[in-house]
Predict the 3D structure of the following.
Amino acid sequence: MRSSHYSPLPEETDLSEFKFFKHLNDTEIGKLNYDKTCQNYKKGSVVYREGSRLTGFYCITKGILKIYKTGIDGKEQIIRFVKAGDIVAFRSLLSQELACTTAKVIDDAVLCHIPYQTLLFLLQNNWKFSHWMIQILCRELREANDYITDIAQKTVRERLAEVLLLLKDSFDVDENNILNISLTREELANMVGTATESVIRLLSEFKQDGLIELKGRRVKFLDVNTLRRMASL
Amino acid sequence: MRSSHYSPLPEETDLSEFKFFKHLNDTEIGKLNYDKTCQNYKKGSVVYREGSRLTGFYCITKGILKIYKTGIDGKEQIIRFVKAGDIVAFRSLLSQELACTTAKVIDDAVLCHIPYQTLLFLLQNNWKFSHWMIQILCRELREANDYITDIAQKTVRERLAEVLLLLKDSFDVDENNILNISLTREELANMVGTATESVIRLLSEFKQDGLIELKGRRVKFLDVNTLRRMASL
DNA sequence: CGAACTGTTGAGAGGCTTCAAGCCTAGTGG
DNA sequence: CCACTAGGCTTGAAGCCTCTCAACAGTTCG
């Protein structure tokens, strides 16, 4: 179940709209398109695994992946979810370390692989691009620091509320206020850093308190303000 | 108590040994020295505060600082301790955000301030240097991700053991195996993300188990291997 | 239809926090 | 030089939050 046998459609592999590449000129975008290799990935397939050597980074043009680390006795800690328009694997690539996370597809995806050398060439020859890269890294580092403070000081209840709001920001809601990403209770737990049962109990508390509505994996937001207060944001 | 009135001695402000600057040539090091402003800071003084606008970054040539965020109801979460040879504040500076941490001196220090423009100039004109910068950021990002997994999945006991080992790595021990940094119980707690009383209880457990010896704030390592096992490393 | 996975609920245990009280130590001022 | 004070350190008790284990219902998919 590594990937489908059919190549993605050309319109599914357009990189020019990626914010990440906003400082590249047409020639550079051309080089990118020439060097890229795009592929379909079915739900459940692993794009790269913790400890593996990376040959390039990936641009997501369709679908959703989860990025996680494997902790004590195999329990996975989800670092983040990524979607179309996001970039993955550049961190380990640029520090020339082995991948420290695993990327698994949770919604059928199309990914474009860009070789390390291409990235290095662009960074070296386009100051605006490398400056942008630096800024992105710095911002991610702040987010990581924020998250450390959160997870160290907040209760599980606060963290769950926060994760729900975070997902709302990243994946948005549809016209009925229903979250546009469908996660198992276990995945939520692995993001919050708690037990599945705790997530279940807290979600039904949130429901009883009229903060959310639940239909299977669908989460509908009813009272975002109280949720925000509950997350101590 | 912002700083002493005396200027630091010239030999206390040498930047050429900083690993961070290893890719700069003599001219560039010269520019650095020309642009820098060095100052003594007494224990307890704050170098920059969360939410403030930064005008440059700091090179620590002497002393120790703690870098922390202020979380729920004022509880501080220590992100890391830094010492001579380390650089601080470049993260917020480069992403052009307000400082997201506070830096407080816990051992009399000498710091050199380098203006933002100088950093930007060096990054823009020296690809090796900006590549090195990118690699440093990527490595820190991995460390932050590792720490998130730790803190989310480990017990307080495991985290305390890990923090002790981490301090041992960063600050080393003297000839008697005594840790070269002196922290209050509260500071340890703020690093682990727990209550002061919990740290006290666990430290005396470690002592009873023959892992460490305690004399006030001095921590002596007796059995690093068991400590490592205890930290699940 | 059955197997495997996901979700739910209950009970019990234990880790950690909080509050409260007292001790110790270093530094200050008379 | 000593008493005093403030801040750090320690210990105990109580209680809550969260985890774990276990049993079972519901769902999905071959």
Summary: Chain A has a mean pLDDT of 93. Residues 155-157, 194-195, 197-198, 201, 216 of chain A lie near DNA strand D (CB under 10 Å from a C1').
